[in-house]
Write a structure and sequence with these properties.
Layout: H1 2-61, H2 68-89, H3 96-121, H4 128-156, H5 162-167, H6 169-174, H7 180-192, H8 206-209, H9 223-234, E1 239-244, E2 255-262, E3 265-275, E4 281-286, H10 297-310, E5 316-324, E6 327-336, E7 339-351, E8 357-361, H11 363-368, H12 381-385, E9 393-403, E10 409-419, E11 422-429, E12 435-444, E13 447-450
Parallel strand pairs: 7-9
Antiparallel strand pairs: 1-2, 2-3, 3-4, 4-8, 5-6, 6-7, 7-8, 9-10, 10-11, 11-12, 12-13
Length: about 450
């Protein structure tokens, strides 16, 4: 009996020691993790403050430099500093809503500076409007700098605990409470909303973010008219039923969203979005399985062109093709006055078992398409050729209209050629001979891709 009691006492003691040790190790591990997490966020905040300080300093130098070389250096520094600050900003445990305006400000400052960098590289000087814009951006960068310093001080004084914010984020969210850093950045955002609108060649410029789709100028149709359009597209005799599959209105283009059941196939459905303005197909997806390939890619391209013409998208030509899982993915672009208009493009998915159109994406076309006044080139193809590398063995030349990042359209000569067995496309501005863009064509087992 004594031996049994001794054994049990020993076992209990071991369990208590083990539990205590394990608990202590977990506590130390958690403490180390909290220290590591706090130090990491503190380091990120320090780097944000440093980059915004440098950003403000660089912005302030621009109006007092007359050197083209110094201008290039300054704009490249602003671009780098804004990008670095934004990168670290997005790593902090702060909600997207609170950060959005600050992140957008840094994105636009960096991208605006990159645009000015390219202009300075080509010998163009700043105009008065751009200088005033840079001065205003400098003021707002100064405001952001002050607020970030305040935040850094609050953290250093222990008023804000990064690890508490990170670890209790879900609790705060469930209680609909905001962490103090979110509140701070929302205050910053209210002020930053007043910074000047930027119009320039960059992906974050306001004229891209606020672009109004051209199709919105067309008259509105009713939901019943939209259903009739769906039946005409899919075949009146093939449609079993049409229902709205959600109450969404669409993004930039308001749509009537339909889910269509086809006769003879109870499992497969077709989702179709019809624009409320003009009654155009914005999106289509047929979920049926494609089990084999019986038609060629050439036949698929021809079927796609006929389909586009039948639903009101005329004068389209294929620009590239891909093949995967018995499906052809074909991109078509619009042609006006023998000029290839790249902004107006539509993607089709075509089933290679019978040639059915099982996918349509036409949003780009509906946003951009209009009858344009295309200018006449100021330089000849040969003059443009002089600005293309002699290393490129040119196979074809044609006139194109290409979109810049801001969706400003530029008339270009498109030179397609090869160098050391690789394919390239070079775009030369047809008005001034500037080399606007270079694309590399990659051959893949499924088709060609451009990079």
């Amino acid at each position: 009996m004594f031996n049994k009691r001794s054994f049990l006492a020993i076992v209990v003691s071991i369990i208590i020691v083990f539990t205590t040790t394990f608990g202590m190790l977990m506590y130390l591990d958690r403490r180390d993790y909290r220290i590591f997490l706090g130090n990491q966020y503190q380091k990120d905040l320090y780097e944000i403050v440093s980059n915004v300080e440098a950003l403000q300093a660089s912005l302030s130098k621009v109006p007092v430099t007359m050197s083209e070389k110094q201008g290039i250096i300054l704009f490249s520094e602003i671009w780098r500093q804004a990008g670095a600050a934004q990168d670290k900003l997005n790593s902090l445990p702060i909600s997207h809503e609170a950060l959005s305006q600050t992140s957008k400000f840094l994105s636009q400052v960096g991208d605006f500076s990159y645009t000015l960098l390219k202009r300075s590289s080509s010998g163009q000087s700043l105009n008065e409007v751009e200088l005033k814009t840079l001065e205003k951006l400098n003021d707002y960068a100064g405001f952001l700098n002050v607020k970030l310093h305040e935040l850094q001080q609050e953290v250093s004084q222990g008023k804000i605990d990064w690890t508490e914010i990170k670890l209790k984020g879900k609790v705060l969210f469930s209680q609909q409470l905001q962490n103090p850093v979110d509140v701070k950045f929302e205050q910053i955002s209210k002020e930053l909303q007043q910074y000047p609108t930027l119009i320039y060649d960059g992906p974050f410029s306001e004229n891209v973010l606020n672009i109004k789709p051209k199709v919105l100028s067309e008259p509105k149709i009713s939901i019943d008219e939209a259903k009739r359009i769906v039946k005409d597209i899919l075949g009146n005799d093939k449609v079993q039923s049409i229902d709205t599959y959600s109450n969404k209105q669409g993004g930039k283009i308001p749509v009537y969203p339909f889910k269509v059941k086809m006769k003879g196939n109870n499992e497969a459905t077709v989702d179709v979005d019809i624009s409320q303005n003009g009654g155009k197909v914005v999106y289509l997806l047929d979920t049926r399985e494609v089990k084999g390939s019986k038609i060629s890619m050439k036949q698929a391209v021809e079927k796609g062109m006929k389909f586009l013409e039948s639903i009101g998208y005329r004068d389209m030509i294929p620009s590239y093709t891909l093949k995967y899982d018995n499906i052809a993915l074909i991109n078509y672009v619009y042609v006006q006055d023998k000029v290839v208009v790249y902004p107006d493009q539509i993607k089709l998915k075509i089933a290679l078992d019978n040639g059915d159109i099982i996918g349509v994406e036409a949003q780009h076309y509906l946003v951009a398409h209009t009858e344009r006044k295309i200018p006449k080139p100021r330089i000849t193809p040969q003059e443009a050729r002089n600005n293309v590398s002699r290393n490129l063995n040119i196979k074809n030349v044609r006139l194109t209209l290409i979109p810049m990042e801001s969706l400003r359209e530029v008339l270009c000569y498109e030179f397609y050629g090869e160098y050391k067995g690789e394919k390239f496309i070079v775009y030369i501005n047809a008005m001034d001979g500037v080399e606007e863009r270079i694309l590399k064509i990659m051959d893949t087992p499924n088709g060609e891709l451009t990079m």
